[in-house]
Structures are given as structure tokens and as C-alpha cells.
């Protein structure tokens, strides 16, 4: 039996329409757990030499930005495939409760409720460590049918504490959670077990907020480099933490210009009633010039001590051969502590 030419054309036309319809129909993703698996939840406990129980004792300035204070990880508990999907599917690694990266240059580090302390979640296998859990999510599209871990060897999930500024004290509130979602299926949750940070530091004060250099006549400055009588003053550190402090250092920073760095002479504040031709020289207890804007170790501090005194001296100093002009001498200086 033969088919007429007109009927053949009708068949071809119908087949063409069906082909176009099938190509335009979107591939719908539908993912579900496979082989009895379900939501994988991990509670990461942090460890380091600074951790005593759940308490992390450290100096406020012990770590630099982006370094690791403590970390912890757990091995992945699922072997083989954990989910199956039909068609194209999206996936995302992200952090809930996050407000964004804390400091420029620190990838996927998120602030906690403790000042200066951030958390960073990671995955690790034989290919290395990946900080894939982001604020907006590491999003991708895949047509994979079966989903499983351990493609590059054993998989681990973990988290790190990362300094984002001067470290404060407090107890972590557990508000951050790392999540992996496959299409609309939540596969993985990572949380960090509660921990407390005790930031070790001291309270600084001075016995003389204003050092009185006395009253002097122009005859007391016979030549350039002449100095007046030295006046002693101290910086007192009290309430120092018994644990967590191994060293203390300080930095002296003049708010005015430095006239002579080798002699530690700073300029006086310029104002109508100010003197001219003099500066202020700052020395240690032995009379040696201090080093401005440089970190200086406090040798008298003994770990475990709760108080320490740092003695200094100051004097007026003739800065040039130009005659000295009488007036007020005012030279502010800032004192910054560094704890390790």
C-alpha cells in the first residue's frame, strides 16, 4: 500500500513541530536524597594551643589580620552518592546570618558577635582546602544525575577563627551557619561549637597626664642642642591579665613633626603664644633618646605580672642656631600598646 505525496508532507510537518516543541520545553530540576541519606549536619569544635576547654586565651594583638587563631574539622560521614537530580539543577554554598566579608582582602570571612573575631568555613580533600562558603553563595549550574562527595579523596568540613581587628572578649553566639543547597534540597549544615575568647591586655595610665617642664630663660639655651633639666614621668600599666600575655611593647608617636629623630626631639604646637627655637626631647629612664614611631619592647614586664611601670624623661631642647623666643611649650605625644 502506498502513501500519497500530500500525506507524507503532513507527517514530516508534524514531526518537525514536535521536534521544535521538545527542544523548547525547559528541563525541570528535581533533587531528592538517595540511598537512605538525609540532611548532613556537623558541629565543628575548634582547637589550637590557645584553647583551654572551650576558652581561647590570647593577647589582644597576638595575631595579624587574616591569620588563623584556631581551627577545627570533621570528616564527611557519607560515602557514595547522597542525592539524585533530574535535569539541570543549581547549587549554592553560602553562610546564613552573615553580613558580608569583614575586611577587604579576607575572602569569605564573616564577623561574629565578638569584636575583632571572624569565622571562615571550608571544605578539604586531597585537592586542597577551599573557602567556598560565601555571603552571596558560590552558585553553579549542573546537569549531573548523581551527587556524592569524595571525588578527590576523603572530604572534611571545617571552620577557622580569623582576626579582623583588635581582638575583644566574649562568647560566640552561634549565629553563623554554612549551608550547601542542591536545587531546593538542603544537603549540608555546618556550625561552630560555642567558644569563649578572653583577650589579654592591660589598662594604661600616666602619673602625669601633663609633664611640667618648668620655666626657663633664654640663657638656659646657650647653643643648639642645649637641654634643660630632665623631668621624669611614668606610664603605668595595671590590671594586666595573668594569662595570655608573653610580651608587652609600646609605640610613642608625636602628633607634631619630628625635628630630630636621632635625638627624639619633637616640634612644639604652633600657636600665637608659642615659643620658638625649641622642641621637646623624650628619653628612657637612662637618658637615651627613645625611638619615635617604632615598637619598643618593655623589658621589665614579667608574664603573669598584673602591673608594670615604664619610666621616661623629657626636657626642652634648642633646635637651631636661631635665637630662642620665649613662649608656651606644648608637644602632645600618643602612647600605643601592643600585646603578644
Structural overview:
This protein has 340 residues and is mainly β. Helices cover 6% and strands 41% of the residues. The protein contains one helix and 26 strands. The strands form six sheets. It has a six-stranded antiparallel beta sheet with strand order 18-19-25-23-22-21, with no helix packed on it. It has a five-stranded mixed beta sheet with strand order 2-16-15-7-11, with no helix packed on it. It comes from Serratia aquatilis. Belongs to the fimbrial protein family. Residues 61-132 form the MrkD-like receptor binding domain. It holds the Pfam family MrkDrd.
Counting helices, strands and paired strands, the structural category is mainly beta
Helix content: under 10%
Oligomeric form? single chain
Q: Strand order within the widest sheet?
A: 18-19-25-23-22-21
Q: What is the gyration radius calculated from CA atoms?
A: 34 Å
Mean pLDDT: 84
β-strand number: 26
Which band does the percent of strand residues land in?
35-45%
Categorize the overall geometry: elongated
Low-confidence stretches: 1-28
Order of helices and strands: HEEEEEEEEEEEEEEEEEEEEEEEEEE
Main sheet overview: 6 strands, antiparallel
Helix tally?
1
Domain MrkD-like receptor binding: 61-132
Family: Belongs to the fimbrial protein family.
Domain Fimbrial-type adhesion: 196-339
Subcellular location: Fimbrium
Amino acid at each position: 500500500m502506498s502513501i500519497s505525496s500530500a500525506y507524507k508532507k503532513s507527517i514530516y510537518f508534524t514531526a518537525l513541530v514536535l521536534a521544535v516543541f521538545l527542544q523548547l520545553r525547559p528541563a525541570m530540576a528535581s533533587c531528592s536524597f538517595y540511598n537512605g541519606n538525609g540532611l548532613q549536619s556537623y558541629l565543628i569544635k575548634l582547637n589550637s594551643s590557645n584553647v583551654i576547654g572551650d576558652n581561647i586565651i590570647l593577647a589582644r594583638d597576638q595575631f595579624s589580620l587574616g591569620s588563623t587563631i584556631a581551627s577545627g574539622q570533621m570528616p564527611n560521614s557519607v560515602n557514595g552518592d547522597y542525592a539524585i537530580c533530574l535535569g539541570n539543577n543549581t547549587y549554592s554554598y553560602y553562610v546564613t546570618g552573615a553580613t558580608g566579608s569583614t575586611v577587604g582582602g579576607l575572602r569569605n570571612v564573616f564577623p561574629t558577635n565578638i569584636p575583632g573575631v571572624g569565622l571562615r568555613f571550608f571544605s578539604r580533600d586531597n585537592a586542597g582546602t577551599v573557602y567556598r562558603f560565601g555571603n552571596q553563595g558560590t552558585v553553579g549550574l549542573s546537569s549531573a544525575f548523581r551527587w556524592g562527595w569524595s571525588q578527590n579523596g576523603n572530604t572534611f568540613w571545617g571552620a577557622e577563627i580569623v582576626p579582623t581587628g583588635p581582638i575583644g572578649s566574649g562568647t560566640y553566639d552561634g549565629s553563623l551557619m554554612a549551608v550547601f543547597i542542591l536545587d531546593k534540597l538542603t544537603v549540608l549544615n555546618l556550625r561552630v561549637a560555642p567558644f569563649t575568647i578572653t583577650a589579654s591586655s592591660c589598662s594604661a595610665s600616666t602619673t602625669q597626664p601633663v609633664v611640667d617642664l618648668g620655666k626657663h630663660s633664654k640663657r638656659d639655651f646657650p647653643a643648639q642642642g642645649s637641654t634643660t633639666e630632665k623631668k621624669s614621668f611614668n606610664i603605668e600599666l595595671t590590671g594586666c591579665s595573668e594569662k595570655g600575655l608573653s610580651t608587652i611593647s609600646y609605640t610613642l608617636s608625636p602628633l607634631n613633626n619630628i625635628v630630630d629623630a636621632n635625638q627624639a626631639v619633637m616640634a612644639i604646637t604652633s600657636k600665637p603664644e608659642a615659643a620658638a627655637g625649641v622642641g621637646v626631647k623624650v628619653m628612657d629612664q637612662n637618658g637615651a633618646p627613645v625611638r619615635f614611631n617604632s615598637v619598643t619592647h618593655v623589658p621589665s614586664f614579667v608574664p603573669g605580672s598584673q602591673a608594670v611601670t615604664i619610666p621616661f624623661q623629657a626636657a626642652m631642647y634648642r633646635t637651631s642656631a636661631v635665637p630662642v623666643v620665649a613662649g608656651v611649650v606644648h608637644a602632645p605625644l600618643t602612647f600605643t600598646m601592643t600585646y603578644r
